[in-house]
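// run 5 | inverse folding | seed 20
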């Protein structure tokens, strides 16, 4: 299940930084590892001083803030034992191109760090780390709490080698999380006494935060049991459902566009649902289901889809032109397949939009195949054929597939 969330999104979701996720958790009563975000080494030192005054911590953790996990493996999480360490480590991390298993080989530039209190207490060894996440099981249509005694580790590795150490608690949407379920989770994690009671409160608050924010996933790795039996979130990876952000203006304001693909950001501003892929055939389609079918037909024709791009049900000349600009930013695109079903929108209007966009953009260096089906499809094909532009038209999907094969040959 978690492998889906590690990959590039198809379902629209917004990611936020660890420090932002922790602030949401804290607002719902989840105990967290306290921290202060900093943009410069100087701010990092001031943050460390403030944390020392507020929490009494004498050591600090300097944590790179990027939208990716595995930061520690890439050198993005360091322990500072003095204020001088805080400054020098912040200088190393801020501005670095951090490469983790989730960033790909290109990595991500670190623009800020979180200065967090040390919660492992020097000299103490009576701590335990757990894994916990709340997410939607799309196959069952229910939320689940996934948890394990193997915290601080890559959960996929745990699932592969020791699957018996991963537990799942399914939540009935009619009644929500029940008290016995939270107690079961604490019991399965081997907790007793005060730690058991604190974990029950932790699970209830975590699930409340997940539901109230319309999240797609809350992942905490690790959840820490301190040596004095307190349960707290040391990390927070949060995915939020973009379709629900209109209900959460405060959370929508947390968006960090510098962490996102610039082309996807630009597409979003034009109300286009765009995801970049690794192929050579650009796709422009109305409707997510038709887009998936279009990518399948491209594969069958011997090509590879270069993107997922849904222009929506009311494609206009302006929308089509914006989509062309987005697709052509990818140098790997060798052809563009436009596949529109005219239901809400008439095919001849889309065809005219394609012609207008083509003329406005000027020279488009790759062949364009336009397949229009539905209302006024015949009139649309005539418009395309008589436009004099380097555009191939088709009505049947198999004809479009054959044209894709032809232009790629």
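// decoded
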């Amino acid at each position: 299940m978690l492998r889906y969330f590690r990959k590039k999104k198809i379902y629209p979701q917004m990611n936020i930084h660890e420090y932002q996720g922790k602030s949401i958790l804290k607002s719902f009563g989840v105990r967290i590892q306290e921290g202060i975000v900093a943009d410069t080494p100087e701010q990092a030192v001031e943050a460390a001083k403030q944390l020392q005054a507020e929490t009494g911590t004498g050591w600090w953790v300097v944590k790179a803030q990027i939208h990716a996990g595995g930061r520690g493996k890439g050198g993005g999480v360091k322990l500072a034992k003095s204020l001088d360490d805080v400054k020098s480590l912040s200088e190393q991390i801020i501005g670095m191109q951090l490469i983790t298993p989730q960033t790909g080989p290109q990595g991500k530039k670190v623009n800020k760090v979180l200065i967090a209190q040390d919660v492992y207490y020097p000299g103490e060894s009576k701590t335990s780390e757990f894994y916990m996440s709340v997410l939607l099981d799309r196959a069952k249509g229910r939320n689940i709490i996934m948890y394990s005694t193997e915290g601080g580790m890559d959960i996929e590795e745990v699932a592969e080698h020791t699957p018996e150490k991963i537990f799942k608690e399914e939540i009935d949407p009619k009644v929500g999380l029940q008290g016995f379920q939270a107690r079961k989770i604490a019991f399965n994690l081997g907790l007793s006494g005060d730690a058991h009671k604190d974990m029950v409160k932790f699970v209830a608050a975590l699930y409340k935060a997940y539901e109230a924010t319309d999240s797609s996933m809350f992942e905490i790795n690790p959840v820490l049991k301190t040596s004095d039996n307190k349960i707290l979130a040391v990390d927070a990876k949060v995915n939020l459902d973009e379709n629900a952000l209109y209900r959460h203006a405060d959370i929508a304001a947390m968006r960090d566009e510098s962490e996102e693909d610039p082309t996807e950001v630009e597409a979003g501003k034009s109300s286009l649902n765009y995801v970049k892929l690794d192929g050579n055939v650009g796709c422009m389609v109305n409707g997510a289901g038709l887009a998936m079918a279009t990518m399948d037909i491209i594969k069958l024709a011997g090509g590879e889809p270069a993107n997922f791009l849904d222009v929506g049900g009311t494609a206009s000349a302006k929308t089509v032109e914006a989509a062309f600009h987005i697709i052509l930013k990818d140098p790997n695109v060798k052809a563009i397949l436009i596949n529109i079903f005219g239901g809400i929108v008439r095919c001849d209007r889309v065809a005219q939009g394609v012609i207008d966009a083509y003329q406005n953009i000027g020279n488009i260096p790759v062949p364009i195949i336009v397949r229009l089906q539905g209302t006024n499809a015949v009139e649309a094909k005539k418009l395309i054929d008589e436009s004099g532009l380097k555009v191939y038209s088709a009505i049947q999907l198999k004809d479009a597939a054959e044209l894709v094969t032809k232009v790629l040959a």
